[in-house]
Amino acid sequence: MSLPIHPIMEQSFAVIDREIGEHNFTPSEYAIVRRVIHSTADFEFTQLIQFSSGAIASGINAIQQRTPIITDVGMVKQGVAGMVAKTFGNPLIAAVEQAPVALPGKTRTETGLMECFEQFPNAIFVIGNAPTALLALCTQLPTAPIQPSLVIGAPVGFISVLESKDALAQAPVPQIRVEGRKGGSSVAAAILNALIVLAEEDNNS
After folding, report:
1. CA R_g for the chain
2. Please, what are the averages of pLDDT over each run of 10 residues along the chain (205 residues)?
């Protein structure tokens, strides 16, 4: 049984399907892109979202295995909590909540994310807000013996955002990345929620 879709979301998806025009996404990629457009009303995301080879399959498998999901901030966690609870019930942790105090020269989110990476190196990492946390994660990846199942890199803003996404692009890890300055908590949550729907559909097929 697939997850029910709210009628307004169904109507919105129909509008997106009409307006998106020609594209080369696979059905799974399109399901993710469409959900991001639904959450932003911004068709530019068709040009910005990048999928590494095997990223979607790795994400689906990790969700089905109830692999922990680490978000950078509470807003991303809240954006996916409902879908996680209704489906596979993965452990869901916001990195910033794990670090009441930041390490010297670091942000709380960066500090918390590194603690989470030490504890759950194979987790799904979902970054929608904190480029410093994404940069810190990317520095660890080349030498980490255990790699994340998936990194969703979608921080938004002006400072360190492009650098963090460039670092992720170079990292040897399954990833779904939003190029440029755009992104944010709602975009990161939309990507993961779309993956959860795909994982549920795959489970029921």
Report:
1. 16
2. 78 95 94 97 97 98 98 98 97 96 95 97 98 97 96 97 98 97 98 98 92
